[in-house]
Amino acid sequence: MAKAKVINYRDRVENVEIAWVPMKDGRKLAARLLLPKDGKDRPVPCIFEYIPYRRRDGTRIRDDETHYWFAAHGYGVARVDISGSGDSDGLIEDEYHKREQDDGLEIIDWLASQDWCTGSVGMIGISWGGFNGLQVAARRPPALKAVVSIASTVDRYNDDVHYMGGCLMNDTLDWGDYFVTCGSLPPDPEIVGWDRWKEMWKYRLDNLDCYPMLWMEHQRRDAFWKHGSVCEDYSKIEIPVLNVSGWVDGYTAAVFRSVENMPGAKGIAGPWGHKYPHVGVPGPAIGFLQEVDRWFGRWLKGKKTGVENDPPLRLFLQDGEKPKPHFDERQGHWIGLPQWPSPNIKVDTIHLGDGTLEAKKSRAKPRAICSSMSTGFNSGEWCAYALGKIAPELAIDQREDDVQSMCFDGPVLKKPLAVVGRTKVNLRVSSDKRQAQVAARLNAIHPDGTVERITYGLLNLSHRDSHEFVKPLKPGEFYEVTVELNEIAQTVPAGCRLRLAISTNYWPIVWPSPELTTITVDPSRSSIALPVLKSEKGLPKVKFAPVEKATLAPVTVKDPGAETRHLILDVESQRVNFTIKRDDGTYVIEDIGTEVSLTKLKNYAVSRDGREQPHSLVATTVHYRRGDWDARTETDVSLTSDKTHFHMESHVRTFVNGEPFVSRDFKRSFKREGL
């Protein structure tokens, strides 16, 4: 693993700790600006990042290693807290609310008009900031010239934290609790004033909503989800987009959808989790800041950087390896694809046989499977945050889950097989219940018997025709369905065998069906459409610059924190509890003197035999201290269900100097709509 070049740019950059961006309705949004020290004498383009995660004491450490670098290379950088977050006036209303987009348009106009700015603006961001970069681009503000979107989605329903293949994801609870936390955090009295900060905080808390409850009102792909889903009309985005993600991130599909549907878009997918690629884990990391400079240098500065000549897709073709809970670095190499879909990739049809994978159609008889509700515990995180060795987030040996699955094994591979793109599993399937789900995993069986998950996909069978118009199943009737697996670029080594594993549950990634289900698969009319890279001959070479970044914000670590993950089975009740305790430790941001600590608890409980209904709980505590300022927020969100309804509770507790400040409680039930 190559060592990153870390450069101290602080003497070349002006740090404007607080700049107030005025909104037409009287609100002021808090921004931090990093500017080249000669910016007023020589105006520069602006790079704009717009998220709710507290620019002053939330993302500051991460921001410093990127934003100082950009500022030192001839850009002004604006990091703005969305309304109701950090030190900004107003309220957080929900994810990607129209008002958030409207504010973004005003911010861009304001940035473009500053005397240090040339009038050209580019948006950058990971996750939330990647989402709203695409959404704001679709609104076509004149000053916005280009976007770099990392770990984002183009489809908020089917390719986000909430639903996958029409199945409810537990991550909607995980993220939902943290989003409630974001909406319940205090402003900094040093910025907004000691006479005002409690009033602002109380206003936020009094008007706080339980956002996961808003999302549970929309279990189908309705107008709620279509808002902010740029796939509704790709043509609205007329500026260049660079879309980036990693293979163990939850947001890889948008890289391919962007290149396929947005003229001039480019995509990069590496081995990483939910991280910027210059700090990408698993490695290898790349010189991503230089890539951003090439992108914005061309589209914001008009420099001839050659980005037009880059392959539309640059993919890290990773080697197949025995699974581990974490990797420091994956083996493999980069490939470039001159277009997408690519003529270099041929779709091989593999037929299902009697527990086998065959080159030709078989006459195998139908097979049935009823997986325990705990099947899937070896799946790892839906979205790995690449926390390194402290967090075993990745899928591990699949043999235990395969025992609870219907498996079809292929012959031993005589030569390596490069799977590149989206695998589709076409099934003729029936169910004994009106609602059922299918989890399909493409695995590699290594010579010693270890089973590696290559990729996977999910389908709620009542969503077989549409995520908007749900149709219950007729028990016993066969249906032709397609389960789409997540995109991947991975070589399966010679000596391995391919396996397709099919289960009726995939806990804790997705919420189970209302009751145990048995599905029957007709292998004689089922197959796999496997995208295979036939040859690398003639493909463009791909090379990235070595990793560079600016020095981090100065931090004193008082407690490094840790993470534990425990799986406990109660043999008598068959109850399985999966508990994750994450402690980010306690640290002091020396620039501002603020001490920050964050802890998170996640507990997922399910009964193997379905006797007891599943239960999930996520709880978060955030604590700020500095001098006389001591503010703490504790939140939790829990979900359970019965055959007809979901039941959700949430609690918010806040404290000033250890004394209770404001509390909020939420409790609602929701009718299951095909889930």
Quick summary of this structure?
With 675 residues, this protein is mainly β.
* Number of helices, counting only DSSP H or I runs of 4 residues or more: 11
Helix content: 10-25%
Sheet with most strands: 12 strands, mixed
In the CATH hierarchy, the third-tier topology of the largest domain is known as Rossmann fold
The CATH homologous superfamily of the largest domain corresponds to Alpha/Beta hydrolase fold, catalytic domain
**Structural class based on helices, strands and sheet pairing:** mainly beta
- Overall pLDDT metric: 96
Give an account of the 3D structure.
By secondary structure, the protein is mainly beta. The chain folds into 3 domains: 251 residues, Rossmann fold, CATH 3.40.50; 189 residues, Galactose-binding domain-like (Jelly Rolls, Sandwich), CATH 2.60.120.260; 119 residues. The protein has 11 helices and 35 strands. Helix 9 links the parallel strand 10 and strand 11. It is globular, with a radius of gyration of 25 Å. The chain starts with a strand and ends with a strand.
Explain the layout of strands and helices.
Layout: E1 5-7, E2 13-22, E3 28-36, E4 44-51, H1 60-72, E5 76-81, H2 98-112, E6 117-126, H3 128-137, E7 144-150, E8 163-164, E9 167-168, H4 171-183, H5 189-192, H6 197-206, H7 211-216, H8 223-226, E10 241-246, H9 253-261, E11 266-270, H10 288-299, E12 313-319, E13 332-337, E14 345-352, E15 357-358, E16 367-369, H11 399-403, E17 406-412, E18 417-421, E19 424-431, E20 437-445, E21 451-460, E22 479-484, E23 488-492, E24 497-503, E25 519-521, E26 527-533, E27 548-550, E28 555-559, E29 562-570, E30 575-589, E31 594-607, E32 615-626, E33 629-641, E34 645-656, E35 659-671
